[in-house]
Amino acid sequence: MNSISGLENYQNQLSRITGLSDGQNQTSKTDAKSFGSVLEKAIAGLNSNMNTLDQGTNGMISGTESDLGKVMINMTEAQLSLETAVQVRNKVIEAYNDIKNMQF
Hints:
Strand content: under 5%
Shape: extended
Subcellular location: Bacterial flagellum basal body
Main location: other
Order of helices and strands: HHH
Largest sheet: none
Distance between the termini: 43 Å
Protein name: Flagellar hook-basal body complex protein FliE
Radius of gyration: 20 Å
Number of strands: 0
Number of helices: 3
Organism: Ligilactobacillus ruminis
GO molecular function, one term: cytoskeletal motor activity
């Protein structure tokens, strides 16, 4: 029973984070997010993280930024964002190749 309640807790957390629930399986066209808009938002977030990293690094070099910890945190966030984007790209390419190699 404990593993089932753990799965339900995990599902509830995912629903809260993503904003989706079981009752939203049938969405209208005005409420539905397209894949393109989700991808655009993710790339904008990645770009924002990289710009913050660049600003922090330039600030450390020029001496205007004195908080090394903040710069290192921004660097780690940008690194994780970039690695995630690369992994998503790899999975998309892998899925495309799988579909391409299907025989009909």
